[in-house]
Design a protein that fits this description.
317 residues; alpha+beta; Jelly Rolls
Length: 317
């Protein structure tokens, strides 16, 4: 099980196909949360409220214009930005049509992906240009629109990854923190085709082994946009889950504490229809123009300014 299976899964990661074929008993990540208090982030007031069902909590906001959420004050949960209407229906339709004209690759846990970015080795912390030659031209307008979002005015896209979640394959993604050696603070996601939820769980690193290359954060901590929480503040979130809605055609940005001190996941139970998301990553400050490792990333920045016609590329290949 440590080697990739025909479906793309390996190790503990599974989908409906390999579970049936190999008789694998799936790790039920939701059951690990059953003894936790669950809260929902409301993007209409940027606070969290008790509950599991994101639709219900958002409906509670709209139920009374004078007393949203029944007058409950909610709690702060910084480091989250959501634009509920980032794309139009027509833009979504055009994007999906384009993405489906580009080959999809199998990935783990029932997902499919299209990756446009440099070649990275997270274990050896090695970076190469590889076959990266920029991004599909039909997706360029999404990156240009980031410039109108105050939080993203300095965002320089280095990787764009299309991820497809299909309930027929039991698609999901396990709790994790995006690598901190190479990917910068702002984790950007554009959601397409259906609503879903990002489930946040506090990361404690109980095994004592370094994970996610979190040790690199100390090298650029003074340049973070969002403050990291101290131990006293984190203690308030022990045994808590925060559920962040990802509505169709919305933009989600994680930064600060949710980026580095919380794991995020997409549960199988939260994929009811085909969902496609565009995930965008930036470099850590070490690889920016004034960083110590810029010599390794300078050529990649040049390639990241290129956009190519996917139809012409298909004819060449």
């Amino acid at each position: 099980m440590d080697h990739p299976r025909p479906c793309g899964c390996k190790g503990r990661r599974t989908c409906l196909s390999c579970e049936a074929e190999f008789g694998i008993v799936r790790s039920d990540f939701r059951s690990t949360f059953q003894n936790s208090e669950s809260y929902v982030y409301c993007p209409l007031c940027n606070r969290i409220y008790p509950g599991w069902d994101v639709d219900q909590v958002m409906a509670e906001h709209s139920a009374s214009p004078t007393a949203p959420h029944g007058g409950a004050p909610g709690e702060e949960y910084g480091g989250v930005f959501i634009d509920l209407h980032f794309l139009s229906e027509e833009e979504e339709t055009d994007l999906i049509r384009t993405l489906d004209e580009i080959p999809w690759d199998v990935s783990q846990s029932g997902r499919r992906k299209q990756n446009f970015g440099p070649k990275t080795n997270f274990k050896k912390t090695r970076l190469k240009e590889g076959q990266f030659v920029g991004f599909p031209a039909a997706t360029e307008f999404v990156q240009r629109r980031f410039e109108s979002v105050p939080l993203l005015t300095t965002f320089q896209t280095i990787e764009q990854c299309s991820l497809e979640y299909d309930p027929e394959r039991g698609a999901s993604i396990d709790p994790h923190i995006d690598d901190c050696w190479i990917w910068g603070e702002r984790i950007v996601t554009v959601n397409l085709l259906s609503d879903s939820v990002l489930t946040m769980s506090l990361y404690r690193g109980a095994d004592g082994k370094p994970k996610y290359n979190l040790q690199f954060v100390d090298q650029y901590r003074d340049r973070l946009l969002g403050l990291l929480a101290d131990e006293q503040s984190l203690a308030c979130y022990e045994n808590r889950i925060v559920r962040i809605p990802m509505p169709r055609r919305s933009l989600l940005v994680l930064y600060g504490s949710p980026r580095y001190q919380w794991e995020h996941s997409v549960l199988r139970e939260d994929i009811s229809d085909r969902r496609v998301c565009l995930a965008y990553r930036e470099f850590t400050p070490m690889y920016l123009q004034d960083g110590s490792e810029f010599s390794q990333s300078e050529e990649i920045f040049k390639r990241a300014k290129l956009f190519w016609d996917h139809r012409k590329a298909a004819l060449v290949s």
